[in-house]
Specification:
Number of helices: 1
Helix content: 25-40%
Distance between the termini: 50 Å
Number of strands: 4
Strand content: 35-45%
Shape: elongated
Strand order of the largest sheet: 1-2-3-4
Number of domains: 1
Radius of gyration: 15 Å
Structural class: alpha+beta
């Protein structure tokens, strides 16, 4: 059982940069903030910290992919 109403941080390091997300659990829902976006996820069998870490990693992976694709399509300006 996740401890509710306690704000926590999760950090991951990608390319020597540390990225952080904050989250808390309330009423069976994980409330996560990554950058300027909020996400609401159901609490499942995986601990909330791991769920938020996975979400953060996926958001960073997609952002890096899009940046690389834009660089290939449009070149660096």
């Amino acid at each position: 059982m996740e401890q509710e109403h306690m704000v926590r941080d999760v950090s991951v390091q990608v390319d020597e940069q540390i990225h952080t997300a904050t989250y808390f659990v309330e009423g069976g829902t994980i409330h996560a903030n990554i950058g300027d976006q909020s996400y609401f996820l159901p609490v499942g069998r995986i601990p909330a910290e791991e769920t938020v870490r996975s979400l953060l990693i996926e958001k960073l992976r997609r952002k890096n992919f899009r940046t690389e694709m834009a660089r290939k399509w449009f070149g660096s300006r």
